[in-house]
Amino acid sequence: MATTKKISDADLKAHIEATIPDFHAARLASLNDLKLRELLRTKNPYLYRAKNILLASELVQGFLLARLSSQEEGIFGTFLEQLAIFVAEKACKGRKSAIKGIDIELEKDGVLHVITVKSGPDWGNDSQINKMRDYFRTAARTLRTNSKKRSLVCINGCCYGRTTKEDKGDYLKLCGQSFWEFISNDLELYRRIIVPIGYRAQERNDEFAVAFAKVVNQFTKEVLADFCFPDGGIDWDKLLAFNSGRPAPKLSKKSKSKRQP
């Protein structure tokens, strides 16, 4: 049976302060690498028309915030996955799994647990959940081949949130406090990580705010030039055609000549 120990505040702080800058750097890079036309093609112009958006700058900010919000979930999810692996290794001698789709292998009380880590409880649709089940089945076959008598439990660990039913039949779903407690044997671990996660957050967010303002200003300039009428009003027809219209067919030389006055 694997031994367990409580992770010290110093160890948690050291790990988080070493890895949280990667989240901030990736967040900033995703902003700086973005192009206006890429942004305009991926968001819903009908929504912003329904909200009666009149300012080009407000349109740009709405598109940007929606895009960045979805990206940040994925970027921060990677950070949380790394943190969970660290906690499991430090507290329960777990290890990062080499099996596809599995993040952690951890033995407790003679039972081997294979864990896939997700940010929150509402992370996937039916197809994605079925794919996770396939990963669990493959992991079970692989590990039981190596040790046929070993009991094995599959776990979907969610770093925040709650679930009304943990037992899903072929796997367990542990969320928030329950998940962090399982991999650390510390009832309060889910609370203890919140302080170091804020390491240099104000400084990093100030840097991001400056970069965000520059992108908003640049994109607003481009929208005014390419998707607004001369009087400054948003040309929704042009924006919608760019976002959703079919590519314009190429005209033959004969057709072109007919269209000329």
How are the secondary structure elements laid out?
Layout lengths: L8 H24 L3 H7 L2 H6 L5 H37 L2 E2 L7 E5 L2 E8 L7 H21 L4 E8 L13 E4 L1 H8 L4 H4 L1 H4 L3 H26 L9 H9 L8 H7 L2
Parallel strand pairs: 3-4, 4-5
Antiparallel strand pairs: 1-2, 2-3
Helix pairs in contact: 1-4, 1-9, 4-9
What does this structure look like?
This protein has 261 residues and is an alpha/beta fold. It folds into 2 domains: 1-90 and 200-261, type ii restriction endonuclease, domain 1 (Orthogonal Bundle); 94-192, 3-Layer(aba) Sandwich (type ii restriction endonuclease, domain 2). The chain has 11 helices and 5 strands, in the order H-H-H-H-E-E-E-H-E-E-H-H-H-H-H-H. The protein has helices at residues 9-32, 36-42, 45-50, 56-92, 126-146, 177-184, 189-192, 194-197, 201-226, 236-244, 253-259, and strands spanning 95-96, 104-108, 111-118, 151-158, 172-175. A 5-stranded mixed sheet has the order 1-2-3-4-5. Helix 5 links the parallel strand 3 and strand 4 (151-158).
Query: For this entry, what is the oligomeric state of its chains?
Result: single chain
Annotated CATH topology of the largest domain: type ii restriction endonuclease, domain 1
Roughly what is the average pLDDT, rounded to an integer?
A: 89
Number of helices: 11
The helix/strand series, from N terminus to C terminus, equals HHHHEEEHEEHHHHHH
Which residue ranges are poorly predicted, with pLDDT under 50 across at least 5 consecutive positions?
254-261
Distance between the termini: 86 Å
How many domains would you count in the coordinates?
2
Taken as a percent bin, the fraction of beta residues is 5-15%
Question: From the 3D coordinates, which CATH architecture of the largest domain would you assign?
Answer: Orthogonal Bundle
Tell me roughly what share of residues is in helical segments: 55-70%
The CATH C-level name of the largest domain is: Mainly Alpha
Judged by helices, strands and strand pairing, the structural class is alpha/beta
Name the strands of the widest sheet in spatial order: 1-2-3-4-5
- The count of β-strands is 5
Coarse shape: elongated
Biggest beta sheet attributes: 5 strands, mixed
> Over the alpha carbons, how many angstroms does the gyration radius reach?
25 Å
